[in-house]
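Q: What would this chain look like folded?
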Amino acid sequence: MRNNVSAANRLHIALLGRRNSGKSSLINALTGQDTALVSDTPGTTTDPVQKAMEIHGIGPCLFIDTPGFDDEGALGSMRIERTLKATAKTDIALLLCQPDMEQELPWIALLEEKNIPVVLILNKTDLPGDAQAAAKRIEEVSGKRPLLVSARRREGIEEIRQAIIEKLPLDFGEQTILGDLVSEGDLVLLVMPQDTQAPKGRLILPQVQTLRELLDRRCLAMSCTTDQLPATLQALSRAPKLIITDSQVFKTVYEQKPEESLLTSFSVLFAAYKGDIHYYTASASVIARLTPASRVLIAEACTHAPLSEDIGRVKLPRLLRQRVGEALQVDLVAGADFPQDLTPYDLVIQCGACMFNRKHVLTRIEQARKQGVAMTNYGIAIAYLSGILDKISISST
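A: My prediction, written as structure tokens:
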């Protein structure tokens, strides 16, 4: 099992339903392990629980066991809100239904609005009652035939697996980090500053994933720090086909690179890999129209202790204020936090989102698009602010 695959690169499958509908039992049956706590007491699952798993015919998956969406009280409302947040990163939803469908129908509508494929499931068919009649009732109300499942007896699990395969997004797993920028045998130089943000003794995830893809595509990969760029270029027998750098040193690398070498950054690569590169690049022009009265939202995918030269909290706001004015208001959110109402903002700037799956990022972009708010990402924004956005290379695939 490839449980070392990054969670962000796994198919995200959320289990939704009322309290005590058997979501935790079903996730245990699907994974073949006692992953989730099972109890006859409603509300045992109080927070979304994630389990990475490899499923034959599907590949690496991440199951998300959510609290019941019929939870009650102040705490219940908070749990339902967390379930709603979980849908932002859901590729496929398994919805456990009750015959009356009173509470399930709004969730079906929500999932369809978010373009999330949904599989209806009637669980606990091992209990007394007419399961066929209940399934027929669900179909009459929802227009969808549910799968009949007994998680306790491990019955119907293969049917769920087949349904997941049928619901897979057409382009799932086809995205690549480097797209059409490189081919086998190309020489690629990675310029990776080792500053206070670089973790001691290791590379950050975008660097690791990009380097691995270069090796898989049989490219010739070379790496150096920013200060060693001139010496590295001099040591090479030919100019690199592509130079990939940290966005923070875009301008420095651009001024030193060979004329024939293409230039991009890890953040720009991930803008295309995780999000909508065209919306990002079009939105960058909004920077020119910002005024001291404007508001900008910076969104980080991960949460970490602030560093002295943190790009999202320090460097990017500084660059924006140098251009627009010190009065520019810049807000920051991290992790899963993201405002439902983006209209107070003139621009949203998302990080490279290496910790998010593609669905999560596209959900945010679609939210911004529907609300008429421009949205770009760190690398694109820094390239624009550096005056080289039209000179960097962007993958078209």
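Residues 131 and 215 are 52 Å apart (CA to CA).
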